[in-house]
User: Which sequence fits this backbone?
């Protein structure tokens, strides 16, 4: 498909799948512009290649799935994003507030695309319920843009083992819960987050879960009645799991996203919520040490498989200081009805 043709959504093949992910906008140029982070993915829903089919068989064996589970609608939905064919070097045209834009960045080898749009504040201030639309004349899609004012409160929250039961500390359990089992919400977290949202908090879901299961995660958040918010996930390949790279990739993925978010919104305050299973306490403390005026609270859900005990806390405080005390909790009610 040539570059000119890709500018026109109507010219794309009918098997084309486009996703637009919930994103954020923030003020720049002393508030005269909104900077919108457009993010999504474009793929072809075609028969998987022989290499992908072989990789899938190996993945099913690694998960020790029986035939009925491997053929279930749930597993097929979760694995779908790994089997489609990414469309590479495509330009995407979207519309925001009735204005059309051709994104300057082309889609990557993964099919993912990301681009910043700087739009006049006057254009969006009358559309506070802002969204991005894409329409090929067959199946229009849209995704929300969360406009974060200069000041205010944002909650950056992990997903796995913070609001969704995942068992990240066990590779086998993590993979089965991710691909072969219904998602289960952590008791009470949706209610607490809704209470925080009612008090003005904006939510940003930053997770090391794969972008390829975005649809399933988005449905989980909606069905479990978590507040709407921007989504920030991680790109994986099936072969990464087969060579045991997923856990390594997970550990390296979130710091940059959170650091950039806090840096881009220097006058907002942030609450960071995670769990003790991986490196959330250490990562959040490091961010708090870099932005002590912005990080007002750190909340860590206690995970029995890798608890945050006194020696671990002491090590964190010794390295990063007690800029924002870490609240360790095991029950959502301990977080209280106020985010700060």
Assistant:
């Amino acid at each position: 498909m040539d570059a000119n043709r890709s500018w026109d959504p109507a010219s794309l093949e009918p098997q084309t799948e486009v996703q637009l992910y919930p994103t954020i906008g923030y003020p720049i140029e002393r508030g005269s512009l909104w900077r919108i982070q457009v993010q999504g993915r474009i793929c072809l829903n075609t028969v998987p290649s022989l290499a992908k089919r072989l990789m899938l068989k190996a993945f099913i064996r690694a998960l020790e799935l029986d035939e009925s589970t491997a053929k279930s609608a749930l597993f097929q939905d979760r694995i779908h994003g790994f089997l489609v064919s990414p469309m590479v070097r495509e330009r995407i045209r979207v519309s925001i507030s009735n204005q059309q834009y051709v994104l300057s960045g082309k889609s990557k080898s993964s099919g993912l695309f990301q681009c910043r749009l700087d739009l006049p504040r006057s254009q969006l201030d009358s559309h506070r319920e802002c969204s991005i639309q894409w329409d090929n004349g067959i199946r229009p899609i849209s995704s929300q843009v969360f406009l974060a004012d200069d000041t205010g409160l944002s909650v950056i929250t992990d997903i796995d083992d913070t609001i969704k039961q995942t068992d990240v500390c066990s590779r086998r359990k993590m993979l089965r819960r991710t691909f072969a089992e219904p998602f289960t919400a952590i008791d009470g977290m949706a209610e607490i987050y809704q209470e925080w949202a009612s008090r003005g908090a904006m939510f940003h879901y930053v997770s090391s879960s794969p972008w390829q299961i975005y649809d399933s995660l988005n449905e989980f958040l909606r069905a479990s009645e978590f507040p709407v918010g921007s989504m920030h996930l991680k790109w994986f390949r099936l072969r990464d799991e087969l060579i045991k790279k997923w856990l390594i990739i997970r550990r390296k993925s979130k710091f940059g996203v959170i650091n950039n978010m806090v840096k881009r919104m220097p006058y907002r305050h942030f609450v960071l919520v995670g769990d003790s299973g991986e490196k959330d306490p250490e990562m959040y403390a490091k961010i708090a040490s870099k932005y002590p005026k912005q990080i007002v609270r750190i909340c860590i859900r206690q995970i029995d498989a890798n608890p945050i005990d006194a020696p671990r806390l002491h090590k964190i405080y010794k390295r990063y200081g007690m800029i924002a005390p870490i609240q360790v909790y095991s029950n959502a009610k301990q977080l209280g009805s106020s985010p700060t």
In short: The longest strand covers residues 33-44.
